[in-house]
Amino acid sequence: MLLRCYDGVSGSIIILLRSLAFSDFIRTFATMNKNINLKIVWALCGVAILLLFCTQAYWLYNQYQYSLDKTVDQFKEDCDKTFRDVFKTYKLQADKGHKKHTFKTKIETKFDTKKVQKAVTTLSFWDNKKYLGKVQKIGITSDDAYELYSRYAAFREHKPTAATYQPYLDKKGYGKIEGFRQVNYPDVFLDSHFEVTGQWTRTVTVRYQTNPMFRQGIAFEVMMSPVPVLRSMLWQLIGSLLLFVILVGCLYYLVKTIVVQKRIDAIRHAFLKNMIYEMKQPSNNKNSDESAISIGSIAFYYTQNELRCAHERVIVTSRQAEILRMLATHPNQLVERESILNEVWGDDSYSNSLALNVQITYLRRALSSDASVSIEAVIKKGYILRTPTLP
């Protein structure tokens, strides 16, 4: 029942989340199918949350079963106490309402030396020289004789009913006695017998001999209500559901954020692609060649971030164009690293210094169309743009 409630509430929450953001989820899932890595991450996160949910549900189930078993154990103790209280009450009434009785017991014990087994004891009973009967059982002792006669004396004129025991159980908060019946048992037993059945609830079948001398007794069933157990586990259930909802919400928000970021990256990529395409188109400005900086046979258009050599065109980034401009304005001269870093990046930090090394590598590739042009590095000082000198 606990897991059914758990599944029902969690299912309702999932349906609510679906109704609130179903269209966003569909768009997110459609975008996710285009990216296999994102799909794998989504699947792994989903499996992790599902495993966490199953683990939590299994823990709650075991906690529920443990609480029910504790309730059953407590019921057994209370039931034994109830039987003792009723027995004492009937015994006092029997002692007050009758004359003095002379009780005799004959004990016979037989041993079989050929077989290794417990001795068979026979207890014979007389009341005021009237033979009552005998009890023959393996393991029964002389100490049990008094218990047998006491129950006989207490219950020979009193037949207990369900109403006899119900008030005692009501005080302890147990359910209603069902199927109460008088039973003639085939064997003698002095202790109460309990049989527990059920998985989500517990039904306890109680068997007790009120007059074991004649194997007479009672039997009834009591169902353990799961409501107190569920009430004691209410905060655990709410906490588990809240944790599950938070994890699902975080996963959904994380994946949605990644998808949105990928959309932004796709838009940025398309924009840069269109911009580069436009920049590669022939310029309509007739004076554009006049602003070119000559680097060997390469024409460098600073304003367009473009290098031209014959029919070959190379587009560089604005930062690379800025670095090349500083080197091209001082050909065959040392340009210090600190000057480039402060001019292009604004400071000469270690990370910017590493970035400068990368940009120089890209510029060398961009200038590779003219073998006479190169960028020479002077360790710990700067760079020199080597170009052919004019005669």
Detailed description of the structure:
This protein has 391 residues and is α+β, with helices and mostly antiparallel strands. It has two domains: 2-232, no CATH class; 290-386, Arc Repressor Mutant, subunit A (Orthogonal Bundle), CATH 1.10.10.10. It contains nine helices and 14 strands. The strands form four sheets. A four-stranded antiparallel beta sheet has the order 4-7-6-5. The longest helix is centred in the N-terminal third of the chain and has 62 residues, at 36-97.
- How many domains comprise the coordinates? 2
Q: Over all CA atoms, what is the radius of gyration?
A: 47 Å
Basic shape: rod-shaped
Q: What order do the helices and strands follow?
A: HHEEEHHEEEEHHEEEEHEHHEE
Largest sheet: 4 strands, antiparallel
| Low-pLDDT residue intervals, each spanning 5 or more residues | 1-10, 12-22, 285-289
Assign the structural class, choosing from mainly alpha, mainly beta, alpha/beta, alpha+beta, or little secondary structure.
alpha+beta
Q: How large is the count of helical segments?
A: 9
Read across the widest sheet, the strand sequence of neighbours is: 4-7-6-5
Mean pLDDT: 78
Count of individual beta strands = 14
Kindly estimate the percentage of residues that lie in beta strands according to DSSP. 15-25%
Distance between the termini: 97 Å
Percent of residues in helices? 40-55%
